[in-house]
Design brief:
The chain is of the alpha/beta class. It has one domain. Helix content is about 35%, strand content about 20%. The chain contains six helices and seven strands; from the N terminus they run H-E-E-H-E-H-E-H-E-H-E-E-H. The chain has a seven-stranded mixed β-sheet with strand order 1-7-6-2-5-3-4, sandwiched between helices. A hairpin with a 4-residue loop joins strand 6 and strand 7. The relative contact order is 0.21.
Length: about 190
């Protein structure tokens, strides 16, 4: 995989220190412990604000993860597309049917370490149902799902527990969503 903000020599350690300082200044805590097996799908919810993105960058840098994240293709226009990709972005065109799940699974097969962050809501707007792409990626790549979260009520963001999908989406999705039931997004009206 390509070099990103999370894997650039000299720059990444400096940004990590800066992230720790910024998190202290804004009063947010990064929750999580070092992850030994860097091969999983990371979901982040609730995704309710544009501020989720910079907060995620700060937390991921502090927790020393090397993450790629999926975002709508309109976030990657010329001339800033290269910068968004350097931040770990993978552009996704949600207007066309394509085999994004299969492409991502192939990346897991080709890379011994890989973390892809997927916002399961697929948008900052209020949704009734989560997108299932993250789940299908995890099942097909045979990797666990790490539940990342934002909780504006406690000013915490970070990593919780691994969830090991059984392949029964009707059982697993309610169990995953139950973890997020008490989490408050930055814009709670969008949750």
């Amino acid at each position: 995989m390509r070099r990103t903000v999370f894997s650039t020599p000299i720059v990444t350690p400096l940004l990590r220190l800066l992230s720790i300082g910024i998190l202290k200044i804004i009063g947010w805590k990064a929750i999580g412990r070092p992850v030994e097996n860097a091969r999983f799908v990371l979901i982040g919810a609730p995704h309710t604000s544009n501020w989720d993105f910079p907060l995620m960058l700060l937390v991921v840098l502090k927790l020393r993860l090397k993450v790629y994240w999926m975002g709508k293709h309109s976030l990657f226009p010329f001339p800033v597309g290269w910068f968004m990709k350097w931040l770990g972005g993978i552009p996704v065109d949600r207007s066309r049917a394509h085999n994004l799940v299969d492409q991502t699974v192939r990346q897991y097969q080709e890379n011994p370490e890989m973390i892809v962050l997927v916002p399961p809501e697929g948008t900052r707007s209020k949704v009734k149902e989560w997108k299932t792409g993250f789940y299908r990626i995890a099942v097909n790549a045979q990797v666990p799902v790490l539940m990342g979260y934002v909780d504006a009520a406690t000013k915490e963001a970070g990593l919780a527990d691994f969830f090991h999908p059984t392949g029964d989406i009707d059982v697993d999705m309610p169990a995953i969503r139950a973890f997020y039931a008490d989490k408050v997004g930055i814009n709670p009206e969008n949750a």
